[in-house]
Design goal:
CATH topology of the largest domain: Butyryl-CoA Dehydrogenase, subunit A, domain 3
CATH superfamily of the largest domain: Butyryl-CoA Dehydrogenase, subunit A, domain 3
Largest sheet: 4 strands, mixed
CATH architecture of the largest domain: Up-down Bundle
Shape: globular
Order of helices and strands: HHHHHHHEEEEEEEEHHHHHH
CATH class of the largest domain: Mainly Alpha
């Protein structure tokens, strides 16, 4: 990573703190506050904040590498780091006064984000009033703001377009609802709003945010959601898979005894295949990050990035399955790190937006459309 020595040291310290509490975070379903503070000290909140607001505007390549490295120690912590970094691109799509509300006092604001449209939205003079529940708000009990999408589709929306709303922590509560198979430490609970006023300057069209339509940042690249969102999801998974590989390496290094002796070579084959899949997935993600850092992102590269991230996730899931098999029954016991890594990987892989089939269809149809235009 092309980062300063100071940043590298802060990232190393964050990893140590995260790793020391990884099992506890999984059991308590909450990363400790001092770990979240270490993420801020390591610069994750300001990673993609425009320099106009004092941010660092570091590369997606370095961000992917930093998140993956952190996930080797604690995938839940890495997930929060990834959310904190990537949410800045959506804040930058708000009107300038809205950006000032979040960043005027500095670029280290932590913002959670929910893209699924939920709740009810009532237009009023000067803005909107929001009510309802927003599920799966990662970091809701630690972060300073939440970026929420509404209104929920259907007759009650009144035909309103979906918008993104920036809501400060003082204006919402949360319900303890996150009891997932994996990524337990992310604390992705439910945010609850009761007739909360959001001024016009703290909202933008969801479609504009998805297209990367930043406000007041001329010269900054326009990054659509499919070009970069996959990196936000898969960076933590890459690190979790590498963490699982390190645990499995200790298992295959020991001479198998008893019933495991018969399957010794099979486990070695599983290990080699998993290591290869992880390496290949990393190469795909590094290329996708390089594309995201480019000056221009033509449609064909955006579609390829979406495909590559979804494919990399599939490969990492397959690798995790093989590594868990190496651990046998003992690796499935509560507290064993291998099953914890496996659960975290499987949890991310369940996200609807990261399924390979839609990404594959979009990629192929894009190629077909281009070929037809060329004839």
């Amino acid at each position: 990573m092309s980062l300063s020595v100071q940043t590298q040291e802060a990232l190393t310290e964050a990893g140590k703190l995260a790793g020391a509490q990884a099992a506890q975070a999984d059991a308590e379903r909450r990363v400790r506050p001092e770990v979240v503070r270490a993420l801020v000290d390591a610069g994750f909140a300001r990673w993609r904040v425009p320099t106009r607001w004092g941010g660092d505007w570091r590369s997606h390549q370095d961000l992917t590498a930093a998140v993956a490295k952190l996930a080797e120690d604690c995938p839940s912590t890495a997930w929060l780091a990834s959310v904190a970094a990537y949410s800045a691109r959506y804040v930058a799509c708000l009107p300038e006064q809205g950006q000032a509300d979040l960043w005027a006092e500095g670029p280290d604001t932590l913002a959670a984000i929910v893209f699924k449209p939920l709740g009810t939205v009532v237009p009023v003079e000067g803005g909107y009033r929001l009510s309802g529940s927003w599920t799966y708000v990662s970091g809701v009990d630690h972060f300073d703001w939440a970026l929420l999408t509404g209104p929920a589709p259907g007759p009650q929306s009144g035909g309103q377009p979906m918008r993104l709303f920036a809501v400060p922590r003082r204006d919402y509560t949360f319900e303890d609802t996150w009891s997932s198979l994996g990524m337990r430490g992310t604390g992705s609970h439910t945010a609850v709003l009761d007739d909360v006023f959001v001024p016009e300057h703290r909202t933008c069209l969801r479609e504009d945010a998805m297209r990367g339509e930043t406000v007041g940042h001329p010269g900054y690249p326009k990054l659509s959601n499919p070009a970069v969102s996959g990196l936000m999801f898969t960076g933590p998974v890459l690190g979790a898979a590498r963490g699982a590989l390190a645990v499995a390496a200790q298992l295959v290094a020991a001479a198998p005894t008893g019933p495991r002796a018969v399957a010794g070579q099979a486990y070695q084959v599983d290990f080699a295949r998993a290591a290869g899949d992880i390496d290949a997935a990393q190469l795909l993600l590094e290329r996708a990050a390089t594309v995201a850092d480019g000056a221009e992102l033509p449609a064909e590269l955006v579609r390829r990035n979406r495909r590559d991230c979804a494919l990399a996730l599939q490969m990492l899931v397959a690798a995790a399955d093989r590594l868990l098999r190496i651990g046998g029954t003992r690796a499935q016991e509560d507290g064993h790190p291998l099953q914890r890594y496996w659960r975290d990987i499987r949890s991310v892989a369940s996200h609807a937006v990261m399924q390979f089939e839609p990404a594959a269809v979009d990629y192929t149809q894009g190629l077909v459309g281009q070929d037809r235009k060329g004839h």
